[in-house]
Amino acid sequence: MKRQCLWMAALLIGILHADEYLTDTTKPKDADPFFRIHRIFKWGFKWGFIDANGKAVIAPQFADEGYFFNGLARVVIEGHTGFVNVSGQYVVQPHYQNAGDFREGLAPVRVGVKWGYIDQKDNVLISPAFQGAASFREGLARVENLGQTSVRTGS
Questions:
Q1: DSSP state for residue 9 in the 8-state scheme
Q2: Cα torsion for 143, 147, 150, 155, to the nearest 10°?
Q3: Which of 23-27, 102-106, 146-150 is modeled with the greatest confidence?
Q4: 67 closest CA partner among 91, 113, 96, 103
Q5: How many whole angstroms separate alpha carbon 59 and alpha carbon 36?
Q6: 22-41 tens-digit pLDDT
Q7: What pLDDT shows up at residue 106?
């Protein structure tokens, strides 16, 4: 009985707040100026972006998203990852299995089971050959291959 009451209370709170935007205030310091938000719908969450004044700049429509770096944000729709610009237009169509953030002009992307790097025009600059890859910082990125970890330069 107690469990049913708690479940009903949680359901009621969810219904009462169904039209509210929930914001994520944990944005990294070096991210571009928009904040991630999600809206609760009957079928789950959808993610979008607001500006510092709380105005929705990209309506909630994505299954998941990252922050804006270098003017682009990672978004997931229908299980595939791509990148949108600050207007919400796709710059890189969602066709990757996963991706990291664009930093220093490159983003790690997963093609099948391997990771590589693309530029902001979706050109593959480092072919997918790694079992793991992180975003670039100060010209370097961590990559993993066959249980080994190494550092890759951007050039």
A1: H
A2: -40
A3: 102-106
A4: 103
A5: 10
A6: 555 567 777 888 888 888 77
A7: 96
Query: What is Dmax (Cα atoms) for the chain?
Result: 63
Q: What is the DSSP letter of 52?
A: T
- DSSP 3-state of 11: helix
| 74 DSSP assignment | E
Helix, coil or strand: residue 5: helix
What the block records as the tokens of 18 is: 């169904």
**Structure tokens that stand for 49 in this block:** 């972006």
Q: Supply 60's token pair.
A: 């909630």
Q: Which residue, chain included where needed, has tokens 């998203």? A: 65
Nearest to 114 by CA among 124, 104, 103, 102: 124
Question: In this predicted structure, what is the pLDDT of residue 29?
Answer: 76
* 129: alpha, beta or left? (left if phi > 0; alpha if psi -120 to 50): alpha
- Please tell me the pTM assigned to this model: 0.75
CB of 138 within 8 A of CB of 153? no
Distance CA 155, CA 89 (A): 29
Q: Decide: residue 91, CB within 10 A, 0-12 exposed, 13-18 middle, 19+ buried.
A: middle
